[in-house]
Task: structure prediction
Amino acid sequence: MSGEEKDKQWQAIEQALQSLPREMSPERSRWTEIAQEIAPQTNRSGWMPYAVAASVLVAIASTWFSVQTSLELKSFKQQQFAYQAAQEQIQYREHQRRLVKASFVENLNMASEQLDPATIADIQNNLAIIEQAMLDIKAALAKQPGNQRLNDLLQQTYTREQQLIESVEKSYPQLRGEA
Amino acid sequence: MSKKLVNLASVRETRDAVDIWVSRAKMGDIKAFEQLYRTFEKRVYALCFRMASNAALAEELMQEAFVMAWRKIDSFQGDSQFGTWLYRLTSNVVISYFRVRKNQSFEGEDSEMVGDNHSSDKLDLNRDLERAIAELPEKARMILVLHDIEGYKHQEIAEKMAISEGTSKAQLHRARQLLKARFA
Result:
Protein backbone atom coordinates (compact mmCIF):
# COMPACT_ATOMS: atom_id res chain seq x y z
CA MET A 1 0.00 0.00 0.00
CA SER A 2 1.47 3.39 -0.97
CA GLY A 3 1.98 6.25 1.47
CA GLU A 4 -0.80 8.22 -0.19
CA GLU A 5 -3.26 5.33 0.18
CA LYS A 6 -2.27 4.95 3.85
CA ASP A 7 -2.92 8.64 4.43
CA LYS A 8 -6.32 8.39 2.76
CA GLN A 9 -7.10 5.41 4.93
CA TRP A 10 -6.11 7.30 8.09
CA GLN A 11 -8.14 10.32 6.99
CA ALA A 12 -11.22 8.12 6.74
CA ILE A 13 -10.58 6.69 10.22
CA GLU A 14 -9.87 10.14 11.65
CA GLN A 15 -13.13 11.43 10.19
CA ALA A 16 -14.99 8.46 11.68
CA LEU A 17 -13.35 9.12 15.08
CA GLN A 18 -14.51 12.73 14.98
CA SER A 19 -18.02 11.61 14.06
CA LEU A 20 -18.38 9.23 17.00
CA PRO A 21 -21.27 10.22 19.29
CA ARG A 22 -20.11 12.38 22.20
CA GLU A 23 -22.70 10.86 24.49
CA MET A 24 -23.57 7.27 25.44
CA SER A 25 -26.27 6.04 27.79
CA PRO A 26 -25.21 3.86 30.69
CA GLU A 27 -27.33 0.78 31.31
CA ARG A 28 -28.82 2.39 34.38
CA SER A 29 -28.59 5.68 36.26
CA ARG A 30 -26.05 5.79 39.08
CA TRP A 31 -27.61 8.77 40.81
CA THR A 32 -28.95 6.74 43.78
CA GLU A 33 -25.45 5.43 44.61
CA ILE A 34 -23.87 8.85 44.10
CA ALA A 35 -26.48 10.52 46.32
CA GLN A 36 -25.82 7.91 49.03
CA GLU A 37 -22.10 8.54 48.89
CA ILE A 38 -22.31 12.32 49.04
CA ALA A 39 -25.27 12.57 51.44
CA PRO A 40 -23.25 12.28 54.70
CA GLN A 41 -21.19 15.26 53.62
CA THR A 42 -24.37 17.27 53.03
CA ASN A 43 -25.70 16.38 56.49
CA ARG A 44 -22.56 17.76 58.04
CA SER A 45 -23.69 21.27 57.13
CA GLY A 46 -26.21 21.06 60.02
CA TRP A 47 -23.58 21.14 62.77
CA MET A 48 -20.87 22.86 60.78
CA PRO A 49 -22.05 26.48 61.51
CA TYR A 50 -22.06 25.73 65.26
CA ALA A 51 -18.60 24.21 65.06
CA VAL A 52 -17.33 27.26 63.14
CA ALA A 53 -18.97 29.62 65.67
CA ALA A 54 -17.42 27.71 68.57
CA SER A 55 -13.99 27.85 66.91
CA VAL A 56 -14.34 31.61 66.41
CA LEU A 57 -15.30 32.09 70.07
CA VAL A 58 -12.32 30.06 71.23
CA ALA A 59 -10.05 31.99 68.88
CA ILE A 60 -11.32 35.37 70.17
CA ALA A 61 -10.89 34.31 73.80
CA SER A 62 -7.38 33.05 73.12
CA THR A 63 -6.45 36.27 71.36
CA TRP A 64 -7.81 38.38 74.20
CA PHE A 65 -5.76 36.46 76.77
CA SER A 66 -2.56 36.19 74.83
CA VAL A 67 -2.19 38.22 71.65
CA GLN A 68 1.53 37.70 71.50
CA THR A 69 1.35 33.93 71.74
CA SER A 70 -1.29 33.82 69.06
CA LEU A 71 0.79 35.90 66.67
CA GLU A 72 3.80 33.70 67.20
CA LEU A 73 1.70 30.60 66.65
CA LYS A 74 0.25 32.06 63.44
CA SER A 75 3.68 32.91 62.14
CA PHE A 76 4.91 29.41 63.01
CA LYS A 77 1.91 27.83 61.27
CA GLN A 78 2.48 29.94 58.14
CA GLN A 79 6.11 28.87 58.03
CA GLN A 80 5.12 25.27 58.62
CA PHE A 81 2.48 25.42 55.87
CA ALA A 82 4.91 27.01 53.41
CA TYR A 83 7.50 24.35 54.24
CA GLN A 84 4.98 21.51 53.81
CA ALA A 85 3.74 22.96 50.51
CA ALA A 86 7.32 23.24 49.22
CA GLN A 87 8.06 19.64 50.29
CA GLU A 88 4.90 18.36 48.59
CA GLN A 89 5.83 20.22 45.40
CA ILE A 90 9.34 18.75 45.46
CA GLN A 91 8.00 15.23 46.08
CA TYR A 92 5.49 15.54 43.24
CA ARG A 93 8.13 16.85 40.84
CA GLU A 94 10.59 14.17 41.95
CA HIS A 95 7.97 11.47 41.28
CA GLN A 96 7.22 12.84 37.79
CA ARG A 97 10.92 13.18 37.09
CA ARG A 98 11.71 9.61 38.04
CA LEU A 99 9.01 8.26 35.72
CA VAL A 100 10.11 10.44 32.79
CA LYS A 101 13.76 9.63 33.37
CA ALA A 102 13.12 5.88 33.63
CA SER A 103 11.29 5.99 30.30
CA PHE A 104 14.10 8.04 28.75
CA VAL A 105 16.85 5.70 29.97
CA GLU A 106 14.88 2.72 28.66
CA ASN A 107 14.50 4.37 25.23
CA LEU A 108 18.18 5.34 25.26
CA ASN A 109 19.22 1.75 26.01
CA MET A 110 16.97 0.51 23.21
CA ALA A 111 18.50 3.00 20.78
CA SER A 112 22.08 2.49 22.00
CA GLU A 113 23.07 0.13 19.16
CA GLN A 114 22.19 2.75 16.57
CA LEU A 115 23.92 5.65 18.33
CA ASP A 116 27.55 6.68 18.54
CA PRO A 117 29.01 5.33 21.87
CA ALA A 118 30.69 8.69 22.50
CA THR A 119 27.31 10.45 22.20
CA ILE A 120 25.69 8.00 24.64
CA ALA A 121 28.58 8.47 27.09
CA ASP A 122 28.18 12.23 26.78
CA ILE A 123 24.42 12.05 27.51
CA GLN A 124 24.94 9.70 30.46
CA ASN A 125 27.70 11.93 31.81
CA ASN A 126 25.42 14.99 31.65
CA LEU A 127 22.62 13.10 33.40
CA ALA A 128 25.03 11.96 36.14
CA ILE A 129 26.25 15.55 36.69
CA ILE A 130 22.65 16.77 37.02
CA GLU A 131 21.77 13.87 39.36
CA GLN A 132 24.77 14.68 41.59
CA ALA A 133 23.79 18.39 41.64
CA MET A 134 20.28 17.42 42.76
CA LEU A 135 21.65 15.23 45.56
CA ASP A 136 23.93 18.08 46.76
CA ILE A 137 21.07 20.61 46.73
CA LYS A 138 18.74 18.19 48.55
CA ALA A 139 21.42 17.57 51.22
CA ALA A 140 21.78 21.34 51.69
CA LEU A 141 17.98 21.72 51.82
CA ALA A 142 17.75 19.11 54.58
CA LYS A 143 19.94 21.41 56.72
CA GLN A 144 18.16 24.65 55.66
CA PRO A 145 14.59 23.66 54.68
CA GLY A 146 13.36 27.24 54.40
CA ASN A 147 16.13 28.44 52.07
CA GLN A 148 14.31 29.84 49.03
CA ARG A 149 17.51 30.13 46.99
CA LEU A 150 18.16 26.39 47.34
CA ASN A 151 14.53 25.60 46.45
CA ASP A 152 14.82 27.74 43.31
CA LEU A 153 18.11 26.07 42.44
CA LEU A 154 16.53 22.60 42.76
CA GLN A 155 13.62 23.60 40.51
CA GLN A 156 16.10 24.98 37.95
CA THR A 157 18.03 21.71 38.05
CA TYR A 158 14.83 19.73 37.45
CA THR A 159 14.08 21.97 34.46
CA ARG A 160 17.63 21.54 33.13
CA GLU A 161 17.32 17.74 33.23
CA GLN A 162 13.92 17.93 31.53
CA GLN A 163 15.40 20.13 28.77
CA LEU A 164 18.27 17.68 28.25
CA ILE A 165 15.84 14.74 27.95
CA GLU A 166 13.59 16.62 25.53
CA SER A 167 16.47 17.79 23.36
CA VAL A 168 17.91 14.25 23.13
CA GLU A 169 14.48 12.75 22.32
CA LYS A 170 13.97 15.35 19.57
CA SER A 171 17.37 14.70 18.05
CA TYR A 172 17.18 10.88 17.97
CA PRO A 173 16.77 10.76 14.15
CA GLN A 174 19.75 13.10 13.72
CA LEU A 175 21.87 11.09 16.17
CA ARG A 176 21.02 7.92 14.25
CA GLY A 177 22.15 9.66 11.09
CA GLU A 178 18.66 9.57 9.55
CA ALA A 179 18.25 13.36 9.21
CA MET B 1 -34.63 33.44 13.37
CA SER B 2 -32.46 30.71 11.86
CA LYS B 3 -32.18 27.23 13.36
CA LYS B 4 -28.52 27.88 14.16
CA LEU B 5 -29.39 30.99 16.21
CA VAL B 6 -32.08 29.06 18.07
CA ASN B 7 -29.49 26.37 18.90
CA LEU B 8 -27.02 29.00 20.11
CA ALA B 9 -29.68 30.49 22.36
CA SER B 10 -30.44 27.04 23.72
CA VAL B 11 -26.73 26.41 24.41
CA ARG B 12 -26.48 29.73 26.24
CA GLU B 13 -29.54 28.91 28.35
CA THR B 14 -28.04 25.53 29.28
CA ARG B 15 -24.75 27.20 30.24
CA ASP B 16 -26.56 29.72 32.38
CA ALA B 17 -28.48 26.92 34.09
CA VAL B 18 -25.24 25.00 34.65
CA ASP B 19 -23.63 28.08 36.23
CA ILE B 20 -26.56 28.39 38.64
CA TRP B 21 -26.49 24.66 39.52
CA VAL B 22 -22.73 24.87 40.11
CA SER B 23 -23.14 27.85 42.46
CA ARG B 24 -25.89 26.09 44.37
CA ALA B 25 -23.98 22.78 44.50
CA LYS B 26 -21.01 24.67 45.96
CA MET B 27 -23.32 25.72 48.80
CA GLY B 28 -24.20 22.05 49.42
CA ASP B 29 -27.40 21.84 47.35
CA ILE B 30 -27.60 18.17 46.41
CA LYS B 31 -30.62 18.72 44.11
CA ALA B 32 -28.60 21.20 42.04
CA PHE B 33 -25.80 18.63 41.80
CA GLU B 34 -28.33 16.07 40.59
CA GLN B 35 -29.21 18.45 37.74
CA LEU B 36 -25.51 18.60 36.86
CA TYR B 37 -25.39 14.80 36.93
CA ARG B 38 -28.42 14.53 34.59
CA THR B 39 -26.84 17.05 32.19
CA PHE B 40 -23.38 15.49 31.98
CA GLU B 41 -24.04 11.81 32.77
CA LYS B 42 -24.00 10.54 29.16
CA ARG B 43 -20.94 12.53 28.14
CA VAL B 44 -18.97 11.41 31.19
CA TYR B 45 -20.06 7.80 30.69
CA ALA B 46 -18.94 7.86 27.04
CA LEU B 47 -15.48 9.04 28.10
CA CYS B 48 -15.24 6.35 30.82
CA PHE B 49 -16.51 3.63 28.48
CA ARG B 50 -14.05 4.45 25.71
CA MET B 51 -11.09 4.73 28.08
CA ALA B 52 -11.93 1.65 30.17
CA SER B 53 -13.39 -0.50 27.38
CA ASN B 54 -15.79 -2.17 29.80
CA ALA B 55 -19.41 -1.14 30.41
CA ALA B 56 -19.68 -2.19 34.08
CA LEU B 57 -16.33 -0.65 34.99
CA ALA B 58 -17.25 2.51 33.07
CA GLU B 59 -20.37 2.89 35.25
CA GLU B 60 -18.30 2.48 38.41
CA LEU B 61 -15.77 5.03 37.20
CA MET B 62 -18.53 7.46 36.21
CA GLN B 63 -19.95 7.16 39.73
CA GLU B 64 -16.53 7.79 41.24
CA ALA B 65 -15.98 10.79 38.96
CA PHE B 66 -19.23 12.45 40.07
CA VAL B 67 -18.52 11.75 43.77
CA MET B 68 -15.07 13.28 43.25
CA ALA B 69 -16.63 16.25 41.44
CA TRP B 70 -18.94 16.87 44.44
CA ARG B 71 -15.99 16.78 46.83
CA LYS B 72 -13.86 19.06 44.69
CA ILE B 73 -16.49 21.42 43.35
CA ASP B 74 -15.18 24.24 45.53
CA SER B 75 -11.95 24.13 43.53
CA PHE B 76 -13.86 24.86 40.31
CA GLN B 77 -13.23 28.59 39.87
CA GLY B 78 -15.03 29.07 36.57
CA ASP B 79 -11.83 29.62 34.56
CA SER B 80 -13.13 27.06 32.07
CA GLN B 81 -16.59 25.65 31.42
CA PHE B 82 -17.85 23.26 34.08
CA GLY B 83 -18.05 20.44 31.50
CA THR B 84 -14.39 20.87 30.55
CA TRP B 85 -13.40 20.76 34.23
CA LEU B 86 -15.57 17.68 34.79
CA TYR B 87 -14.16 15.76 31.79
CA ARG B 88 -10.59 16.49 32.91
CA LEU B 89 -11.44 15.23 36.39
CA THR B 90 -13.09 12.14 34.88
CA SER B 91 -10.08 11.24 32.74
CA ASN B 92 -7.89 11.64 35.84
CA VAL B 93 -10.15 9.27 37.77
CA VAL B 94 -9.91 6.62 35.02
CA ILE B 95 -6.14 6.97 34.68
CA SER B 96 -5.76 6.86 38.44
CA TYR B 97 -7.85 3.67 38.59
CA PHE B 98 -5.66 1.86 36.11
CA ARG B 99 -2.43 3.16 37.63
CA VAL B 100 -3.14 2.83 41.34
CA ARG B 101 -5.69 0.03 41.73
CA LYS B 102 -4.05 -2.17 39.15
CA ASN B 103 -0.66 -1.04 40.49
CA GLN B 104 0.86 -0.33 37.12
CA SER B 105 2.85 2.39 35.45
CA PHE B 106 1.94 3.73 32.03
CA GLU B 107 5.57 3.77 31.01
CA GLY B 108 6.92 0.94 28.88
CA GLU B 109 5.08 -1.30 26.51
CA ASP B 110 1.61 -2.77 26.95
CA SER B 111 1.78 -6.36 28.01
CA GLU B 112 -1.30 -7.37 26.05
CA MET B 113 -1.07 -7.43 22.28
CA VAL B 114 -3.78 -6.76 19.79
CA GLY B 115 -4.49 -9.89 17.89
CA ASP B 116 -4.49 -12.15 20.92
CA ASN B 117 -8.04 -11.53 22.01
CA HIS B 118 -10.05 -11.00 18.88
CA SER B 119 -10.72 -12.56 15.55
CA SER B 120 -9.08 -11.40 12.38
CA ASP B 121 -12.46 -10.56 10.80
CA LYS B 122 -12.39 -7.61 8.47
CA LEU B 123 -14.15 -4.74 10.22
CA ASP B 124 -16.40 -2.10 8.75
CA LEU B 125 -15.29 1.43 9.63
CA ASN B 126 -18.73 2.89 10.26
CA ARG B 127 -20.10 -0.09 12.14
CA ASP B 128 -17.12 -1.44 14.08
CA LEU B 129 -15.00 1.56 15.05
CA GLU B 130 -16.01 1.42 18.74
CA ARG B 131 -15.15 -2.28 18.81
CA ALA B 132 -11.76 -1.68 17.19
CA ILE B 133 -10.97 1.05 19.76
CA ALA B 134 -12.03 -1.26 22.59
CA GLU B 135 -9.67 -3.96 21.32
CA LEU B 136 -6.62 -1.69 21.36
CA PRO B 137 -4.02 -2.24 24.11
CA GLU B 138 -4.85 -0.30 27.26
CA LYS B 139 -2.36 2.59 27.15
CA ALA B 140 -2.54 3.04 23.41
CA ARG B 141 -6.34 3.10 23.63
CA MET B 142 -6.42 5.69 26.40
CA ILE B 143 -4.03 7.99 24.56
CA LEU B 144 -5.96 7.62 21.30
CA VAL B 145 -9.24 8.46 23.08
CA LEU B 146 -7.74 11.47 24.87
CA HIS B 147 -5.90 12.80 21.82
CA ASP B 148 -7.98 11.92 18.77
CA ILE B 149 -11.48 12.00 20.29
CA GLU B 150 -11.25 14.33 23.27
CA GLY B 151 -8.69 16.70 21.72
CA TYR B 152 -6.06 16.76 24.49
CA LYS B 153 -2.47 17.78 23.65
CA HIS B 154 0.42 15.38 24.19
CA GLN B 155 1.82 17.61 26.92
CA GLU B 156 -1.37 17.34 28.97
CA ILE B 157 -1.70 13.60 28.36
CA ALA B 158 1.93 13.12 29.45
CA GLU B 159 1.27 15.05 32.67
CA LYS B 160 -1.95 13.16 33.39
CA MET B 161 -0.40 9.74 32.83
CA ALA B 162 3.03 10.59 34.28
CA ILE B 163 4.83 9.62 31.08
CA SER B 164 7.06 11.56 28.71
CA GLU B 165 5.62 13.34 25.68
CA GLY B 166 7.71 10.99 23.53
CA THR B 167 5.98 7.97 25.03
CA SER B 168 2.57 9.57 24.48
CA LYS B 169 3.40 10.20 20.81
CA ALA B 170 4.78 6.69 20.34
CA GLN B 171 1.66 5.09 21.88
CA LEU B 172 -0.63 7.24 19.72
CA HIS B 173 1.31 6.22 16.62
CA ARG B 174 0.97 2.58 17.66
CA ALA B 175 -2.77 2.93 18.26
CA ARG B 176 -3.26 4.54 14.84
CA GLN B 177 -1.22 1.86 13.09
CA LEU B 178 -3.23 -0.88 14.80
CA LEU B 179 -6.52 0.80 13.85
CA LYS B 180 -5.37 1.15 10.25
CA ALA B 181 -4.43 -2.51 10.19
CA ARG B 182 -7.88 -3.49 11.51
CA PHE B 183 -9.64 -1.65 8.67
CA ALA B 184 -7.14 -2.46 5.92
Observations:
- Residues 113-117 of chain B have pLDDT under 50 and may be disordered.
- The first helix of chain B runs from residue 3 to 26.
- Residues 107-184 of chain B form a domain with the Arc Repressor Mutant, subunit A fold (CATH 1.10.10.10).
- The two ends of chain B are 46 Å apart (CA to CA).
